[in-house]
Amino acid sequence: MQISPNEIFAGYIFDTATSEIRIPLASLPGLSASEADATTGNGMEVIRQIVDRTHSAVTALAPTARPTKATVAKPNPSIASGASVTPGTLRQNYTLSFDLQPTGLELASEAS
Q1: Is the dihedral of CA 50, 53, 4, 65 positive or negative?
Q2: Residue 85 pLDDT
Q3: How many Å apart are CA 60 and CA 34, to the nearest integer?
Q4: For residue 23, which of 65, 60, 52, 62 has the smallest C-alpha distance?
Q5: Distance between CA atoms of 112 and 75, rounded to whole angstroms?
Q6: E strands, the chain, where?
Q7: How far apart (Å, rounded) are the C-alpha atoms in residues 19 and 107?
Q8: Contact of 96 with 51, CB cutoff 8 Å
Q9: Is the pLDDT of residue 112 over 80?
Q10: Tell me, what's the pLDDT at 84?
Q11: According to the model, what pLDDT value does residue 80 have?
Q12: Residue 89 and residue 77 in contact, taking contact as beta carbons nearer than 8 Å
């Protein structure tokens, strides 16, 4: 099933005058204003919070209402390891999968 941006992000807006999309900070509860700051914030944390919110919204849907041509999975976090990793650090993986049309590489339609 296709889901609208508002089903993922409460208050999502597409401004046709400026061709901008807007996601209210309140729609990303794990993201602080300082992390979201356009100049001094943390872009990777913004992306992580968008992906995490997407996962939460999709898994909250009834299984029959979830998209089948675009999926997001979030396994349990694991202990990160490596020479530059602080001991005790957790690593959270996400898997995003999209079925694409062979021409134009656009998302495949959810319509059957």
Answers
A1: positive
A2: 85
A3: 28
A4: 52
A5: 29
A6: 13-15, 20-22, 70-73, 78-79, 90-91, 95-98
A7: 20
A8: yes
A9: no
A10: 85
A11: 87
A12: no
